[in-house]
Amino acid sequence: MPDLNHNPNSDQSPDFQQNGQPIVTLADDSGHILACYVEKTITLDDLELEYLLLLPVAAPIEIFSWQADDDTLADIEDDEINALFPSAKAVLAELDLTLQHSAYTLTATGDIPEADEDSCFALEVDDEGATDNFQMLAQFYHREQRYVACTPLEPLLFFAHRTANRVALLSPEEFERLQPQIEDQLFEGLD
């Protein structure tokens, strides 16, 4: 899926709120934006940056290709998304969902159908057996290839930092370096 590297084009605007919860927007290099709730704000003593745990406002959407030869789902390349987007948008519209080409992930607005046992599945995401759980929303064909549009069952979270009015995703290297301090702050008081 999309690259989560540091982005110099991130939002320059102040927070706004929905239902009393602050919302910030992120922007990618293509100019797409992603509105996110600020789930948690973390300030590390030795750094002047404010760190944010973000949750997208709209439902994240993943598209996988169906591999008929071994009956599995496979990731698709970022450059395939543009070609598939109209077909995926049309099939999700049948569920009263509006597919959006957001920054860092596709998203859908509207009411996601309630998950049931038949629509949920686990997908292995690495060589060590880790899995992510998804709800299948719709299937569609594009150029004789079958695709599946899904939403993750676990929240899709982003880590970002803010200085003045600028919000940008943490680079993977920056997150790895700060992860112990951030986790200490996140889990403080949960014992």
Task: Record the SSE blueprint.
Elements: E1 16-18, E2 21-27, E3 33-43, E4 50-56, E5 59-67, E6 72-75, H1 78-93, E7 98-100, E8 106-109, E9 120-124, E10 131-142, E11 145-152, E12 158-163, E13 166-169, H2 172-187
Antiparallel strand pairs: 1-2, 2-3, 3-4, 4-12, 5-6, 5-8, 5-11, 7-8, 9-10, 10-11, 12-13
Describe the 3D structure:
Helices cover 17% and strands 43% of the residues. It has 191 residues and is an alpha+beta fold. The longest helix is centred in the middle third of the chain and has 16 residues, at 78-93. Mean pLDDT is 84; it is low at 1-14.
Q: Features of this protein?
A:
disordered N terminus, six-stranded antiparallel β-sheet, 191 residues, SH3 type barrels, alpha+beta, 2 domains, single chain, globular
Strand content: 35-45%
| Structure classification | alpha+beta
- Shape assignment: globular
Q: Report the end-to-end length measured between terminal Cα atoms.
A: 34 Å
Averaged pLDDT: 84
Largest β-sheet summary = 7 strands, antiparallel
The total number of structural domains is: 2
Number of distinct beta strands: 13
- Individual helix count: 2
Which percent bin holds the helix content? 10-25%
